[in-house]
């Protein structure tokens, strides 16, 4: 009845691309590790300098990149669905900046110094993310009407404000500048297995929950009232999705800083390919997001060796023009 | 009677602004109820309360005997489906997916879609003639197609109650009729209960079993279209003068808005002697120009009689085939004396109505301005073997009598009015 092959093909391409980009990313870097050696290390546990680079540095970095990309893209897809605006994502809504501020506060106050450091940072990032989200939301929600433009403007304005608060905190805390810059630029250069674990705990269950509500999100695209008529408890589902989205963003930002535009680009490309059905848009966007961040990071750390471009800068360089293209495009309403 | 919706003493307000007050009504299974009222009268709020999108501040709503407050969204959606005003949001979904959304109240999250869900979708698409669109993108559809798909979605909910919020106001005429015909058919065939907000009074009149007329949050009038739609109720609700004609389509009232500039009364009255349709044009034209009309003697059921009634003329009437009784004769005379002008239409004369000529020769009537619509065919219209013609000649001899054509009549009357006034 429904032509599904388009979705099948897309899924196949995405999985292939993810495997290819994974391999590319594992192979290239400050030290190139030939594919043959990678296979040997994986299959036969061959111990060498390269094997510790691969297992302890590169592998966690690539996996973290994938998790972050998947989380950001899925959250972007869901936010666009909820707010019926193709230009929102965790970045433009200010959630990422809020999470970054939360993380920075946890660092400069020293709360994150203990054993549960990463978890504490994550919780602070989550709180920052959700507070910002509701603040931006309440700014845009005026007299029972929600203006999509206001939402975007409020998001950007609040982002700027939070960024300057972070800069101010940097000024006051010279000693920790290096540490803080990481949040503002978005970098996964310090990836480790513990970070991968933290990110996975925050992101993976969230992804599953987001996908679980894809059908409801589809129905809400017809308008919240229309969805209610069909039996959807919209207020409850919106709350769940926003909460889960904030948890994911908290997990992303506490492990990788603010990484922009992935949440914007990936869902948009997927919708272009397969239509608006969130049952495929959310998982496909997650896959594409993972691919984009893995590739951006690979390019960032190989293009001007021995220096590294933080992944957040890479995604912004690619995403900025894309955002402008979206703005200029006529069919902005298509979600 | 099988009561689908019972609303008691329902009230709603936004802050201090009263939106609905003392709403009481019930809807029987299989009936089509229209809600009519100007913008801001509370129609949409009423629909939102019935669908539990809003919670009532006062009163209660029973859905098939169950209090809506104790039902969850899915339970309500399994009984009540809504076709909203228009679905303007652009989203790139397959038509089939959009229709399948209607099964949401029935699909378990874990099991997914069952065969019967797909069957329900297919059959409602067949019903609304949208099956061929199943694989198209909803975004590419025309307004009429979209609305039919949304209707298919609502039907896929297999509702017992269908709620329509101005379902057709944005559609081309063809689709308006198509969709309302479909819904009406389901009322009759499947005992579907329909509550519709309709903008077009004539659509409401044509399709509804009963209407509720709202103003300022209260039900002002209700009943069958014939009972509820009157000149005065519509004037009250919409502050608009209308003319209502009954019987042109079934036994439903048909409402014409009066757009003529001076429907204001001229405070001049005209009595028309007519019958057999000879006076209808004259009555209508004079009415729309602000004259008060009376007519007689006409037999009940005659076309001129009907026109007179429609245009609020006072009529001296008589039972068919009996000739003019003294009672009718005297009433006719009374009306003539009250009138400023008398018009004799080009009516056929026979034994039954010849007294309508006699009357024009009465002493008291002679002072009146009498206009005879004349096209020189009186002879042919005389079926009284000459006696009518004789009377006619006598009448013509009166100095206050003028022969005139139908076309010139109105002009002449207006000229007379001006003389009168100055």
Description:
- The complex is a heterodimer of chains A (335) and B (422).
- Chain A is mainly alpha-helical and 335 residues long.
- Chain A has one domain (5-328): ABC transporter involved in vitamin B12 uptake, BtuC (Orthogonal Bundle).
- Chain A has 14 helices and two strands.
- Chain A has helices at residues 5-27, 35-44, 49-83, 95-108, 117-140, 148-172, 177-185, 193-212, 214-220, 224-229, 234-256, 262-274, 278-302, 311-328; strands spanning 141-142, 145-146.
- Chain A has a two-stranded antiparallel ribbon.
- The longest helix of chain A has 35 residues, at 49-83.
- Chain B is an alpha/beta fold.
- In chain B, helix 4 (115-127) crosses helix 5 (143-156).
- Classes of the chains: A mainly alpha (335), B alpha/beta (422).
- At the A-B interface, helix 9 and helix 10 of A face helix 2, strand 6 and helix 3 of B.
Going by helix content, strand content and strand pairing, the class of chain A is: mainly alpha
CATH architecture of the largest domain in chain B: 3-Layer(aba) Sandwich
Number of domains of chain B: 2
Whole-angstrom Rg of chain B: 29 Å
In short:
The complex is a heterodimer of chains A (335) and B (422). Chain A is mainly α.
Write the layout of secondary structure elements.
The complex is a heterodimer of chains A (335) and B (422).
Chain A: H1 5-27, H2 35-44, H3 49-83, H4 95-108, H5 117-140, E1 141-142, E2 145-146, H6 148-172, H7 177-185, H8 193-212, H9 214-220, H10 224-229, H11 234-256, H12 262-274, H13 278-302, H14 311-328
Antiparallel strand pairs in A: 1-2
Helix pairs in contact in A: 1-3, 1-13, 3-8, 3-11, 3-12, 3-13, 4-5, 4-6, 4-7, 4-11, 5-6, 5-11, 6-7, 8-11, 8-13, 9-13, 12-13, 13-14
Chain B: E1 3-14, E2 17-28, E3 32-36, H1 43-50, E4 58-63, E5 66-67, H2 73-77, E6 80-83, H3 95-100, H4 115-127, H5 143-156, E7 161-165, H6 173-190, E8 193-197, H7 201-207, E9 210-215, E10 218-223, H8 225-228, H9 231-238, E11 242-249, E12 252-257, E13 269-273, H10 280-288, E14 292-299, H11 303-310, E15 314-318, H12 326-338, E16 341-344, H13 355-358, E17 369-373, H14 378-381, H15 387-397, E18 401-404, H16 406-421
Parallel strand pairs in B: 3-8, 3-9, 6-7, 7-8, 13-14, 13-16, 14-15, 16-17, 17-18
Antiparallel strand pairs in B: 1-2, 1-4, 4-5, 9-10, 11-12
């Amino acid at each position: 009845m429904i032509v599904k092959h388009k979705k099948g093909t897309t899924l196949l391409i995405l999985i292939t691309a993810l495997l290819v980009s994974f391999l590319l990313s594992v192979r290239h870097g400050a030290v190139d590790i030939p594919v043959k050696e990678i296979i040997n290390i994986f299959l036969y546990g061959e111990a060498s300098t390269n094997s510790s680079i691969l297992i302890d540095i590169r592998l966690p970095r690539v996996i973290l990149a994938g998790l972050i990309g998947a989380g950001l893209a899925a959250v972007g897809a869901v936010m666009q669905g909820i707010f019926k605006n193709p230009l929102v994502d965790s970045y433009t809504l200010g959630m990422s900046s809020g999470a970054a501020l939360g993380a920075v506060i946890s660092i400069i106050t020293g709360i994150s110094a203990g054993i549960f450091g990463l978890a504490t940072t994550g919780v602070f990032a989550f709180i920052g993310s959700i507070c910002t989200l509701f603040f931006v939301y309440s700014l845009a929600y005026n007299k029972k009407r929600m203006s999509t433009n206001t939402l975007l403007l409020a998001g950007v304005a609040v982002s700027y404000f939070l960024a300057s608060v972070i800069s101010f905190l940097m000024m006051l805390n010279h000693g920790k500048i290096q540490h803080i810059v990481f949040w503002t630029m978005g970098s996964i250069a310090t990836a480790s297995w513990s970070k991968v674990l933290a990110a996975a705990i925050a992101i993976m269950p969230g992804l599953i929950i987001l996908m679980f509500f894809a059908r409801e999100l589809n129905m809400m695209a017809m308008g919240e009232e229309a969805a209610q008529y069909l039996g959807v408890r919209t207020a409850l589902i919106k709350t769940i999705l926003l909460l889960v989205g904030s948890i994911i963003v908290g997990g992303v930002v506490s492990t990788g800083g603010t990484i922009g535009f992935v949440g914007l680009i990936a869902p948009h490309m997927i919708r272009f390919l397969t239509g608006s059905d969130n049952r495929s848009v959310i998982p496909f966007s997650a896959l594409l997001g993972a691919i984009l961040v893995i590739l951006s990071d690979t390019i960032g750390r190989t293009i001007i060796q021995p220096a590294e471009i933080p992944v957040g800068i890479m995604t912004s360089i690619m995403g900025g023009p894309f955002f402008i293209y979206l703005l200029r495009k006529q069919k902005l309403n298509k979600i | 009677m099988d009561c689908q919706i019972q609303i008691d003493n329902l009230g709603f307000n936004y802050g201090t602004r009263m939106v609905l007050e003392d709403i009481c009504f019930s809807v029987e299974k299989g009936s089509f109820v229209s809600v009519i009222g100007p913008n801001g009268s509370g129609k949409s709020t009423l629909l939102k309360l019935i669908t539990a999108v809003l919670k009532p501040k006062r009163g209660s709503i029973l859905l098939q005997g169950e209090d809506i407050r104790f039902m969850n969204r899915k339970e309500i959606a399994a009984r009540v489906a809504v076709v909203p005003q228009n679905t303007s949001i652009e989203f790139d979904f397959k038509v089939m997916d959009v229709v399948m959304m209607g099964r949401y109240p029935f699909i378990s999250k874990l099991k997914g879609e069952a065969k019967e869900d797909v069957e329900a979708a297919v059959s409602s698409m067949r019903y609304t003639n949208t099956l061929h669109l199943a694989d198209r993108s909803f975004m590419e559809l025309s307004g009429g197609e979209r609305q039919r798909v949304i209707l298919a979605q609502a039907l896929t909910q297999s509702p017992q109650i269908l709620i329509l919020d101005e379902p057709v106001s944005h559609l081309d005429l063809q689709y308006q009729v198509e969709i309302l015909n479909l819904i009406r058919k389901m009322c009759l065939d499947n005992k579907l209960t329909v509550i519709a907000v309709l903008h077009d009074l004539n659509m409401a009149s044509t399709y509804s079993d009963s209407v509720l007329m709202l103003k300022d949050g209260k039900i002002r009038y209700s009943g069958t279209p014939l009972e509820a739609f009157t000149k005065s109720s519509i004037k009250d609700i919409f502050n608009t003068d209308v003319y209502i004609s009954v019987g042109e389509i079934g036994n439903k009232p048909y409402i014409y808005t009066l757009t003529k500039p001076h429907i204001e009364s001229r405070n001049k009255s005209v009595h028309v002697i007519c019958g057999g349709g000879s006076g209808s044009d004259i009555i209508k034209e004079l009415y729309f120009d602000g004259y008060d009309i009376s007519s007689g003697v006409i037999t009940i059921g005659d076309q001129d009689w009907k026109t007179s009634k429609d245009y609020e003329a006072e009529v001296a009437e008589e039972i068919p085939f009996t000739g003019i009784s003294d009672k009718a004769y005297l009433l006719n005379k009374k009306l003539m004396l009250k009138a400023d002008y008398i018009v004799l239409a080009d009516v056929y004369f026979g034994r039954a109505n010849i007294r309508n000529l006699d009357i024009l020769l009465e002493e008291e009537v002679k002072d009146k301005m009498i206009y005879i619509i004349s096209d020189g065919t009186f002879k042919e219209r005389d079926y009284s073997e000459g006696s009518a013609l004789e009377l006619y000649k006598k009448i013509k001899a009166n100095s206050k009598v003028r022969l005139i054509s139908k076309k010139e009549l109105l002009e002449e009357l207006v000229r007379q009015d001006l003389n009168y006034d100055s």
